[in-house]
Amino acid sequence: MHRSDVLIIGAGPTGLVLALWLSRLGIHARIIDKTSTSGTTSRALAVQARTLELYRQLDLSDSVVQQGHCVEAANFWVKGEPVARLPLSRIGEGLTPYAFLEIFPQDEHERLLIKRLEAFGVSVERDTELEAFEETGDGISATLRLPDGQRETCQACYLAGCDGARSVVRKALDTGFPGGTYQQIFYVADVQASGPTFNGELHVDLDEADFLAVFPLAGSGRARLIGTVRDERAEHAETLRFEDVSSRAIEHLKVQIEQVNWFSTYRVHHRVADHFRTGRAFLLGDAAHVHSPAGGQGMNTGIGDAINLAWKLAAVLSGGAEARLLDTYETERIAFARKLVATTDRVFTFVTAEGRMADLLRTRLAPFLIPKMASFERSREFLFRTVSQITLNYRRMPLSMGVAGHVHGGDRLPWAHDGEGDNFEPLKSPNWQVHVYGDTSDEMIAWCIEHHLPLHVFDWRPAFETAGLGRNGFYLLRPDTYVAIAETCSDPKVIERYFKHHGIRSFFG
C-alpha cells in the first residue's frame, strides 16, 4: 500500500511549495492534482518581497527575479491621460533585499516549482483525484481515483488540502466557508499589444469606464489586462469573449491590441474558512481563504501558509517536536487571513465602486493624493511594508515572546545590510538559530554548542540600530525566519525553558 508522510491535494503554488519545503526537510510528500497539466493561464502575477526572502531557503529567489519582470512604476490615468506616477523600483530600499515589485505569472511560477520539486525526486501525479478520506488511529486513509479510472487506497500521516476555492478537502471536513461574492465580473487577458502603456510599467485607469489595469510581463509588448465587466454583459459572463468587453477603458489607456493569447472571466469572492485544521487534515491557500486581487496578496498568502505548516510538520514527523506544535498553524495563519480579507475588501470596494461620488473620488481626489503620497518617504514605505507582507507578524501568539530593541517575538527579523555583510545570509538554512547583535555570554556560546543550536554573533554596527535590532541580547529564530524569542539578556535558560514549554526537542528540520 502506498504510504507517505504527507498527502498533498492540489498542485498550484501552495501545494508545490509545501511539497518542496517538506522535501527539503527530508519529509516524504506525495502530491496529486486532478488536472492533466500544470496551468497554462493564471491570474496571480506579483511575487511579494516576503515570498522572495523565504525563497532564499530553496535557492529560488534569483531564478524568480531573473525570469520575471521588475516594475519600475505605477501610472494612473484619467480621461485618457496619465495624471500620476508612483516610482516602485526602489520603494522598499533598506527594508529588504527585494525592494521592488516583481511580476512573475503563476503559470511560469508553477513550472519553476515543478522543476525544482523533480530535483528532489518528487513528481506531481496528474489526472488523480481525491474521492474520500478518513482519519485512522495513527494517520489518514484516502481513496484516490487514478488516471485509468481505477481506485487506490493510500495511507499518510497527514493530509494537506491545497485544492482551491472549491476544495474537496474542505467540503469533506464540513468546514464552513463564510463570506460573499462581489457583484462585478472580472476578465483577465494575456495580450500582445502596443501603445504608451506598454513601456514595462503598471498602468491603471481610474475613469468612469470599466476598471482596467495593464500589468507588464517579461518580453516586448506582452502584458496582462485585468478589468471589470459591468452592465447587462455581466449576466452572460460564462460566454463572454474578449470582443465583448468594453473598449472604453482600453481606448482610454491607448492600448492597441495585436493578439489575444488567452482570455477568461471570473467572479471575486471574499471568504475565510472557519477552521484551517481538523485533526490530521489541514487547509491552505484558496481552500482556506479567498479574497480580492487587490495588492496581489492571494498566491503569496498561500505560499506563506505552506511554509508555516511545512517546518512544523517536519519537526513533528522527524520526532523533533510534539504533535501539539501543529495547533499553532491555524492560530497564526487564520488571524492573518481574516485581516487580509478585511483590508483587500476596502481597497477593492474603492477601486470598483460605481456612482457619481465614487467616480469623483477616483478621477479628482485620487490623482491629487497619489502624487502627494509618493513625495513622502514615509508614505511610500508604509505602502511597501503593507503590500510586500514584510509586516506580517505573529505577535502575542503562542510561539512568540519578548521584546528587544524595536523587535517583538513573532516579527519577521528586520533586514540589516551594509558594506560589512547581510544578517539574512544565515537564514538560508531552514533551522532554528540564534542571532546576537553585539556581545553574548560564555554560557550562551557553550549552551548552543552543546545543543547543536547554530549561534550567529554579529559585531555591533550602526546598520543594526537603524534596523531596530537590540544590542547584546538575542533573537531565537524559527525555521521560517520569524522571531520566536526577542530577549535583552544573554541567558540560554530562556531558550531551554521555551523549547521545553513547547515540546520542541530538535533544532533542525
Describe the structure.
Its cofactor is FAD. The chain is globular. It contains 13 helices and 26 strands. With 509 residues, the chain is an alpha+beta fold. The longest helix has 26 residues, at 327-352. It folds into three domains: 3-64 and 104-177 and 273-344, FAD/NAD(P)-binding domain (3-Layer(bba) Sandwich), CATH 3.50.50.60; 69-98 and 180-269 and 354-380, D-Amino Acid Oxidase, Chain A, domain 2 (2-Layer Sandwich), CATH 3.30.9; 401-502, 3-Layer(aba) Sandwich (Glutaredoxin), CATH 3.40.30. The strands form five sheets. An eight-stranded mixed sheet has the order 6-5-12-13-14-11-15-18. Strands 1, 2, 8, 9, 10, 16 and 17 form a seven-stranded mixed sheet that branches. A six-stranded mixed sheet has the order 20-19-26-25-23-24. It has helices spanning 13-24, 49-55, 61-67, 106-119, 168-173, 248-252, 298-317, 327-352, 356-374, 377-388, 442-450, 462-467, 493-502, and strands spanning 3-9, 29-32, 46-47, 69-71, 73-78, 81-87, 101-103, 129-136, 139-145, 151-161, 179-194, 202-205, 212-216, 222-229, 256-272, 277-278, 281-283, 289-290, 401-404, 407-408, 417-418, 421-422, 433-437, 455-458, 474-477, 483-487. The mean pLDDT is 90. It is 30% helix and 28% strand.
Please tag this protein with its features.
509 residues, alpha+beta, FAD/NAD(P)-binding domain, D-Amino Acid Oxidase, Chain A, domain 2, Glutaredoxin, 3 domains, eight-stranded mixed sheet, seven-stranded mixed sheet, 13 helices, 26 strands, globular, oxidoreductase activity, acting on paired donors, with incorporation or reduction of molecular oxygen, NAD(P)H as one donor, and incorporation of one atom of oxygen, FAD/NAD-bd_sf, FAD, FAD binding, flavoprotein
